[in-house]
Amino acid sequence: MRQKVLRTKAIYTAQTGQVVAEEIGEILQEFGIMNKIAAVTVDNAANMDVAIKRLNFIKLGCFAHTLNLGAQSVYSLASVTKWTAKIRGVVVWMKRSSMGKTVLREKQQLLNLPKHSLILDVRTRWNSLYMMLERFIEQYPAIQAASLDQRLRKPMERDRLARLTEDDFRRAEEFIHLMKVLYTSTLCVSSEKSPTCGQILPILRKLEKHFSVEEGDTVLGSSLKQAVWGNLSKRYQTDGIRTVNCKVH
């Protein structure tokens, strides 16, 4: 797939939906493709909504961003915030401490673990909570060994960092198990080499099955599933997405 910029144009009037629609329409008419547009992907600005409606196009929201909104929904869960805050606190402390980095590298070498740096999540960065916990699991033996090292133990106790437990590790493992499919789905639809809108409905069906609450789920698992699918299930419910998928195929 090749991407072309048809026109870059400065607009000196108010960026209303009507103005945007007129400017886009003129460019599409210039290139003779007005009747060849199946759908348009835009941001969530109100003026863009108005512009797309005026042009009578199907609006297709960014699916990767939609998946990220589902992933972000877990930040507000009480079953997630407390233990992830403990992990985040240790990660921040280790990343800021020069001695912490040195001791962690020593433990990585001693335990034959990859010499990877810890990752700190940032809510606006896609899937960063998943990546922080995935790296935490990978480096958990080294983190535990470093936190018990006398060069770090007293400073960490002085800073009142909550000590990580096996329960924190198990919760992180369960989180990774459940959220990995959302992470890989985001990577799949973020590809720049092929059109991806035809993958939206199949991926949503897969996610619906994956995040269905089942008997025997833990409190954490059940709350994660309800939060993620509760967010995603409200999206892509119009006939527009089905029309676009048919045209793509």
Question: Can you give a write-up of this model?
Answer:
By secondary structure, the protein is mainly alpha-helical. It has two domains: 1-59, no CATH class; 64-239, no CATH class. It has eleven helices and no strands. The longest helix is centred in the last third of the chain and has 24 residues, at 166-189. The two termini are 15 Å apart. The mean pLDDT is 88.
Helix-strand makeup class? mainly alpha
Approximately how much helix is present in the residues?
55-70%
Gyration radius over CA = 23 Å
> Could you name the ranges where pLDDT drops below 50 across 5 or more consecutive residues?
none
- Could you spell the SSE succession in H and E letters? HHHHHHHHHHH
Strand content: under 5%
Number of helices: 11
What is the arithmetic mean of pLDDT? 88
Q: How would you characterize the largest beta sheet? A: none
The dominant shape is elongated
Beginning-to-end CA distance, first to last residue? 15 Å
* Number of DSSP E strands: 0
Q: How many structural domains are formed by the residues?
A: 2
At a glance:
By secondary structure, this protein is mostly helical.
Strand-helix topology:
Elements: H1 17-30, H2 46-55, H3 63-72, H4 78-96, H5 98-110, H6 128-148, H7 150-158, H8 166-189, H9 200-210, H10 219-232, H11 239-248
InterPro entries: RNaseH-like_sf, ZnF_BED_domain_contain
Protein name: Zinc finger BED domain-containing protein 4
GO cellular component, one term: nucleus
